[in-house]
Amino acid sequence: MASLLNKTTSRPTTEAKVAIVTGSTGGIGSWLAEHLHARGYCVAVCGRRQAEGQAVASTLDASGDTALFVQCDVKSYNSQVNLFQTVWKKWGRLDVLIANAGCVDRGSVYNLARRHAALDDLPSEPDLSCTDIDLKGTIYGTTLATHFMRNNPDKKGGKIIVTGSMMGVYSCPTFPEYCAAKAAVNQWVRAMAPILANKEDITINCIMPGGIETPAMPDFSTAFLPEQMTLRTNLISGYDLFLDDAENTRTGETLEAAHDTLIPWGKPEYKSGAFAKRTEKVYDPWFALVHGETSGLAEALKAPPTKGPKIIAVTGATGSQGGGVVNVMKKAPGWRVRALTRNSESEAARKLAAEGIEIVQASFDDEASLVKAFEGVHAVFAVTNWWEHLFQGKSQDESGEIEEEQGMKIARAAASTTTLEHYIWSTTPSAKRMFKGKLLTPHMDYKANVDARIKSELPDLDKISTYLYFGYYPQNMAFFPLLKPIEYPGNGQWIQTIPSKPDAKILVSGDMTLNPGIWVRQVLATGSKAYGKYANVALEKWTFPDMLDVWSEITGKKGVFVETTIDAWTKLWGPAGNELALQFKFGEMCDPWEENDEDFISPKELGIDEKEVVGFRGTIEGLKHMF
What we know:
alpha/beta; Rossmann fold; 3 domains; 23 helices; 20 strands; elongated
């Protein structure tokens, strides 16, 4: 088709944008032609019915300067060639194709009237005009629109909007061929979108109305109740959504035009996890074999996938949670650990390297370094440290803002990792969200903000994510000054002063050198069943007096729990004390870690072996020498 433009390249071009609307001699197409013309487009009306098409075009502009009719049967490629050539000769550009032409089944594929036909009396060849018009016509139109839009005089590119149907999502046995054709149109739009956008600056999207009064079938208003039909104004607003995309970045979308609302339809979830995710991924050697060049997509597989152990990238690998993950995953069959650290020369990093762990330097403040560090990994364990920023002099909210931004940089880097199969984010419940702002716990609230933003901003990452809730570290009683029991002078007793009611229970995560890794290992083993789920990294919920009693039993030191106030503890310990006091208040008001069947996956479902998990008692016994 190299000669398509040869006859018209010397013609002057119009300054107005140009649109082709197929199937516009009546119904939806004629509405769209009228609407586009009112928006200032030069419009090409096309269809098989000449008299009706001429009437539509003349109504728009009797002079023919800004509207013309071209007779076209979209199921014929040559007929569409004539359409596009005629439009280019007239206006010298093409900005929008509305691939609207369509019809329902032209005959019955059930052959119900032939139940008693003799065996040798075979059914006639089915009339597949519906497939030819609805699907092949769209493919032909996309092919030709791409060719002409490449040659637009000022800037290549344009928009293709396809009229689909909700029957392409929810099949109706009355119209089996139509349902199949419209479902195929949806997949055509999704499959074509990345390449057209990347290589041609062309977007392609699909509007899916429900029932709407058109000549396609008689008596719509009899077959549907008014509230079950798509309003014309709502349908048109769906096309406007893409026409108004000035940056031309919205692509591959299927948009339901319901009665009076527009509903985006995203991709189906990955029900089989990595297996399903791999199915959609472009393998560039095959792409080049079929299409003559590589895809140019950043997420494409450039070469055969590597075989051997899978890689888990562990952020915060020298910290409490990350260290626990490394300790278990370095022994997990089929896995290799890549430890991320800011300082690859630190003593902790050198110790990991000596154990054969791959060390990669990356900063939570440098998204590019994270992208590089995640290259080729199959899983990521992500954790951030709010307390680090607080102890460096930041306020509670400033620390949270930094943590949230770091959390999103990690998430975005992971989302861009083409080999990623599972993302595991260490997070916490949010008092702010649960109590509508009446109680704030910044070190929990900002972390939970990352959960919400992953779901809204990175939905594809959310589909392969598991969210781990961590609670109280028993190690705090040995290493964290605010929670260490201290000896009361003169009576040989040890007191633990905490701003919490003695009957308030708290999630106890147990031995942090082990338990985080157990949960991560089992989440990965569970695979897709853990996607989108939360899990408590704990088997216990204890009160502080209960914990102190066990501490006393193990250490032989008499411990006494003393309740204090938030104000007193804040005066004693400053912002750190205030922050923990707010968390403990959260625990008094509710059970922040309460599980529900819908959002949570249980230890049993993860295959957690209770005998392997080290709880509070076991942790304190292991730290006995520290007290």
